[in-house]
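Entry, Tuesday afternoon. Goal for today is a structural model of the target with magnesium ion bound, before we commit to ordering more compound. Inputs were pasted exactly as handed over by J.K., no edits. I checked the ligand SMILES twice against the vendor sheet because last time a stereocentre got dropped in transcription.
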Amino acid sequence: MDNTLQASNLGYSPVLRNITLELNPGELVALIGPNGAGKSTLLRLLTGYLKADSGDCRLQGKALSDWSPQALSRQRAVMRQQSQLGFDWPVETVIAMGRAPWETPRDGHIALQVAALTGCTPLWGRKYNTLSGGEQQRVQLARALAQLWVDDAPRGWLFLDEPTSALDLYHQQHLLRLLKQLTTSGQLHVCAVLHDLNLAALWADRLLLLHQGEVVAQGSAAHVLQADTLGRWYGADVHIGQHPQQPTPQVFLAP
Ligand SMILES: Nc1ncnc2c1ncn2[C@@H]1O[C@H](COP(=O)(O)OP(=O)(O)OP(=O)(O)O)[C@@H](O)[C@H]1O
Ligand SMILES: [Mg+2]
């Protein structure tokens, strides 16, 4: 089975134009680009939450619009940029919501396993709405992983919109190490919007740079994270250095 996600000439007026890309199994792809570039909109198109005006998006060779909502929900999970809940639910209920597509009543152990993986165990019993922003983000990651859990690990496509925006240093590292470990196993495929280019450089296999609704650069961190490229598309004045432990570019803002 061709387990890729392929977008061909996707357009969503006036936000996105002519987006063609392919996401491959076992990859950790970072979607980067300035505010308003269209990253969140693209994520919605790639996950079937928005319908493109033109072009199409195929998972395993089948157009997203031809998948039943339940079958699609068993293949891909999405963590949004903002996730407020209107109800006063405890953490364990929010994580268990991820199991909705599976109709399996006795899978409470999955919520416990993803909680342990994502650092949510200390939050057990707390009300989601009383958590800090970073704690809520960890619970949303746990919910998304619970949605993709099969047997003893998450499998399928995980889409994350700025998953580290509220996380402290420890939890940024923990989340990216976890995603790297899960994608390297080949069962999980990740596409994450990241504003932190240094996290993307250290952990993503491939970067896609979006600007005003178009993919303007893509490839390895060494290829995409160049001072002239970032200057051109972000308008930022940057210097590129190297990580002290490995030959990965790191981005420094000029003062
Ligand atoms: N339905 C719509 N109609 C018109 N404009 C829209 C629509 N949806 C989003 N936009 C605009 O499209 C642009 C891209 O929005 P999007 O949320 O995808 O950006 P983003 O790259 O995720 O930005 P950020 O980094 O700030 O999260 C924004 O300028 C937004 O205001
Ligand atoms: Mg966004």
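The pocket of adenosine-5'-triphosphate (ligand 1) is lined by residues 14-15, 33, 35-41, 81 (CB under 6 Å).
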